[in-house]
Amino acid sequence: MKALVYHGPGEKSLEDRPRPALQAPGDAIVRITKTTICGTDLHILKGDVPTCEPGRILGHEGVGIVEEVGTAVGAFKPGDHVLISCITSCARCEYCRRGIYSHCVEGGWVLGNRIDGTQAEFVRIPHADNSLHAIPPGADEDALVMLSDILPTGYECGVLNGKVAPGSSVAIVGAGPIGLATLLTAQFYAPTRIIMIDLDDNRLAVARKFGATDTFNSGRDPVVSLVRELTDGKGVDTAIEAVGIPATFALCEELVAPGGVIANVGVHGAKVDLHLEELWSRNITITTRLVDTVSTPMLLKTVEAKRLRPEQLVTHRFALSDILEAYETFARAADTHALKVVIDT
Length: 345
Ligand SMILES: NC(=O)c1ccc[n+]([C@@H]2O[C@H](COP(=O)([O-])OP(=O)(O)OC[C@H]3O[C@@H](n4cnc5c(N)ncnc54)[C@H](O)[C@@H]3O)[C@@H](O)[C@H]2O)c1
Ligand SMILES: [Zn+2]
Ligand SMILES: [Zn+2]
Description:
Layout: E1 2-6, E2 12-16, E3 28-36, H1 39-45, E4 62-69, E5 81-84, H2 94-97, E6 122-125, H3 128-131, E7 132-134, H4 141-145, H5 150-160, E8 169-173, H6 177-186, E9 193-198, H7 201-209, E10 214-217, H8 223-230, E11 236-241, H9 246-255, E12 256-264, H10 276-279, E13 285-287, H11 296-304, E14 314-319, H12 323-331, H13 333-336, E15 340-344
Parallel strand pairs: 8-9, 8-11, 9-10, 11-12, 12-13, 14-15
Antiparallel strand pairs: 1-2, 3-4, 3-6, 3-15, 4-5, 5-7
């Protein structure tokens, strides 16, 4: 089968690889119909993720058709149309029983990291009963590919952890796919202000189309004073960090109002200053989270009911044979205006 293989920092190629086989009774083999590329795949290619070793097939998002199941799989059978969760979970360990699937002792984020992933014609999914979701008939596959990772990430790590509430004010720093997914799902709760901040004017224009009430370019605008003006001098109830660099976390520390929450979503590779000399008296909360994908069944229903239209995030599409070009397009988002690229296999 064709697969996109990581060969160490900066190196990847499209290759012929053997089709995966069942290894444990809880496994399923899924024939991928659509997959996509995540910002985290770019982190891997920069060498930021040492758990991902050379020779690994990348990808942790996708939809497909079940090809084969192990003897212990009860929820799925060959021919079923399924959504693949970016988080693999056994449903039985202590963390899974607490809903913290991201820390499953036999899973977590393994796909396209510790085991071969979804940027291929077939993938092996361990603990298939809890790591796949049945797709309702007639559902839009493009929308569903957005549910493997970015929608649950924005919702769980940003909106839920950030305690977005009716009438509240929210600032989202970073208008990439994750920041935009956070913007879409924050609107479930009818906050009165959602302020998006980025350096890329195209992404800010998309944010306005997706429901942002205000957008600021932090490379140009005095963001802190503008946000204070919009919030009676207080700052925002929820400041969501969706970039993953020290400067944007520091900005969230300046934007949060007394009693508010800083919800970190970004993957950080460098240490960040915590300004307790400013924040100690402000009654704030800081949260961190690796997405658990516990909200995926709820998000599937909202997509099915068209209350959420994540297919709006798809800007480009490619065949699997052109995946190197898809990577190129996704990596040069400022020029190509790419948000999510869908790869048809
Ligand atoms: N916590 C989790 O479970 C989880 C899951 C998936 C992704 N992530 C992380 O979320 C983050 C966002 O992901 P993405 O795919 O949207 O990434 P992305 O790189 O596509 O988007 C980041 C955005 O931040 C903007 N930006 C960069 N520097 C900035 C600055 N100084 N000020 C304002 N904006 C700035 C960029 O223009 C871009 O639009 C990444 O760090 C990713 O690894 C976390
Ligand atoms: Zn991802
Ligand atoms: Zn578990």
